[in-house]
Amino acid sequence: MKNSDLDKVAGNGLINRRHLLQLGLAGLGSGVTNSVLAAEDSLQLQIPQWSKQPGPGSSAYGSRSSHSEYMQRAAGAPNPLYPGGGASRSPLQHLQGTITPNSLHFERHHAGIPDIDPAGHQLVINGLVKQPLVFNYEDLLKYPMVSKIYFLECSGNSGSLLGPNAADATAQGIHGLVSCAEWTGILLSTLLDEAGVEDDARWLAAVGADAASMGRSIPLNKAMDDVMIALYQNGEPVRPEQGYPMRLFVPGWEGNVSVKWLTQLKLTREPSQFRDETSKYTDTLPDRSSLQFTFPMGSKSLITSPSGQMQLDRQGLYQISGIAWSGGGSIRRVEVSADGGQSWADAAIESNRSDKALVRFSIPWQWSGGSAILQSRATDSEDNVQPTRESVLSAQGRMSFYHNNGIQSWAVNGNGEVRNTYA
Amino acid sequence: MPNKITPNKIFIVFGLVALSVTACMSTAQQKSVQLGIPVSQQQLQQFDLIAAPDGNGLPEGSGTARQGRVVYDQRCQACHGANGEGTINSTQLVGGNMQSAGPPVRTVGSYWPHATTLFDFIRRAMPADSPKTLSNTEVYQVTAYVLYMNDLIDQDQELNKQLLVEIEMPNKDGFVDRSSIQ
Question: Does the complex come out with an ipTM higher than 0.90?
Answer without folding.
Answer: yes
